[in-house]
Amino acid sequence: MDFLKNKLAIVFYHLMVWTVLFSFPYLLSSGQNQAIQAVIVFSWIPLSFYVLIFYTNYFVFIERFLFTKKTILFLVSNAILIAFFILINNQIKEYFFQHIFIHKDKQGQFKPSRNLFIYIDILFFTVPLVFSVALKTTERWIKTEGERKEAMTIKLESELQHLKYQLQPHFFFNSLNNIYSLVDVSPEQAKQTIHSLSKLMRYLLYQTNNDKVSLSNEIQFITNYIELMKLRFTENTKIEYDFPVLKTDLQVAPLLFISLIENAFKHGVSASQETEIVFKMSVDGNRISFSIKNHNFPKTDSDKSGSGIGLQNMEKRLQLLYPGKHQFSTAVNDGFFTVNLALEI
């Protein structure tokens, strides 16, 4: 339906432009002692030829020749087409107004030569060609840009969906194992953990299908995620987080921070060394600032653990969702890997 509406709108705009162009010569000549034949010969007939040149290029020549890099064939075809219409146009003018091409009138005054009129015709008959190329090229660029953005959207959506489905079973079973180990040692903590896990899985299943989610819900999700992840590690791993309590809620893209948090757990924990991971978020008006600091233990190429979405894809997603409204940077200093993300919502 939208496609048909766009097509009808384009047809309407084209008709409106040509109606205005054909109306002006008649309206400007009304009230003068000028025959309608003059308007027809000097305005409407050339305009009709302009229409033919414009749409022959718009529908045929540009697609078949110019866009397929057959530039010489494109230029030759247009030269023949324009020359043909100029010839016909001048024949019509000569038939109705032969006296305008006489080089010398009865008083001996010289009038412009026929070559000058042909030169002017060439200029005017080239105008619809230029406009046709400009319009068609612009439309193609808009279409290509739209398709590129749509492809990026589909790719990122599939990556996000992949992240969700990979996160669910992997994280779910790890959490169940941790809960199982708590049942005998700390039954109350095991109950709380099951409750947190259920809320986390409910959020993944039902709320992340929307384009935007509540930031407070997203904060609660990543808080539950971090708390559950803490069960996997020993006291050698120090995990801290500082998230704001929002007075006014904001809307953000779902699972926007989780890949960064996963990355910190993936590359920031060592089985043999003391490690530290710090998450911090602040909100100032419509600006969200999120930072992570963790020890840096890069995985080898053979290690395929983690979601696989990667920091590179995170940047692509930010460019698509928040173009010109985000700052994203990473750095490694003194054995620590830091991430800083700022968003204008």
From TrEMBL:
GO terms for cellular component: membrane. The keyword Transport does not apply. The chain crosses the membrane at residues 12-29, 35-60, 72-88, 116-135. Keywords: Kinase, Membrane, Transferase, Transmembrane, Transmembrane helix. One of its GO terms (molecular function) is phosphorelay sensor kinase activity. Residues 158-235 form the Signal transduction histidine kinase internal region domain. Pfam families: His_kinase. This is Histidine kinase. It comes from Flavobacterium sufflavum.
